[in-house]
Amino acid sequence: MDLLKNKILSEGVVLSDNVLKVDKFLNHQIDPELMVEIGKEFYNRFKDSEITKILTLESSGIAPAVMTALNFNVQAIFARKRKSLTFTDDLLSAQVFSYTKQETNMISVSNQFIQPGDNILIIDDFLANGEAAGALINIVEQAGANVSGVGIVIEKSFQSGASILKDKNYRVESLARISSLADHKVTFAGDTK
Ligand code: G4P
Ligand code: NA
Ligand code: NA
C-alpha cells in the first residue's frame, strides 16, 4: 500500500534495529484519511471471506479496525488489557507475552460479542513476534468461532510473527512489510537495498 509506505518513509522514525516509531499517524496522533484508506484496503483483501466481525486489541488497533468494520458493515470489538467497573461479564481471556517488557499480560473480551459461527477478521497495528495476534486467535477459537485472517498495518517481517502465523495456516495480509530497520533506514520487503 503505497500511501502507507510513503507515510512511513516521511513520518516514521527508526528508533533502533527493531523499533519503528509511528506516533505521528498511528500510535498517538492518528491520521483519519490514512485510516479510511487502510479500512478500504483490508476490505479489498478480505472481501471474499464473509467476515462477520472485526477483532483488535486496544489501543492502537482500534482506528484501523473501526475503519475496516465500516467497510464490511459489521461491528468492531477490541480486547481489553485491564478490567473496568462495567467489564464484569463472562470473559474470554488469553495471555500476551511482551519480549521488550519481559512480562505476561492478560487480554479479555466479553463472551457475548463472539459467537460460534462468526467469521472473525483480526486487525492490529504491528506484527512483531505475533504474541498479540496469537492471543486474539486463542480468544476467537475459545469462543468456537472461525479466524478468517489477520490484517496487519505494519509487519516487521524480520521478526517471527508473520512466519509463525503462516506456518499455522492463518491468512496474513500486511499493508506494509518491513524487511529491515538496520542503519536507521526502513527497507520494505521486496525492495532492493
Ligand atoms: P515486543 O515483543 O517487542 O514486546 O512487542 P509486543 O508484541 O509485546 O508489543 C508491545 C507493543 O509494542 C504493542 O503495542 C505493539 O503493537 C508495539 N510494537 C511492536 N513493535 C513495534 C514497533 O516497531 N513500533 C511501534 N511503534 N510499536 C511496536 P501495545 O503495547 O499493545 O500498545 P498500543 O499502541 O496498542 O496501545
Ligand atoms: Na502499538
Ligand atoms: Na497493537
TrEMBL record:
Keyword Glycosyltransferase set for record: yes
Pathway it works in: Purine metabolism; XMP biosynthesis via salvage pathway; XMP from xanthine: step 1/1
SUPFAM superfamilies recorded: PRTase-like
CC annotations in GO: cytoplasm
UniProt: 5-phospho-alpha-D-ribose 1-diphosphate binding residues: A128, N129, G130, E131, A132
Compartments, record wording: Cytoplasm
InterPro entries the record matches: PRTase-like, PRTase_dom, Pur/Pyrimidine_PRTase, Xanthine_PRibTrfase
Listed name of the protein: Xanthine phosphoribosyltransferase
Species, as recorded: Jeotgalicoccus aerolatus
Taxonomic lineage of the native organism: Bacteria, Bacillati, Bacillota, Bacilli, Bacillales
Gene (name only): xpt
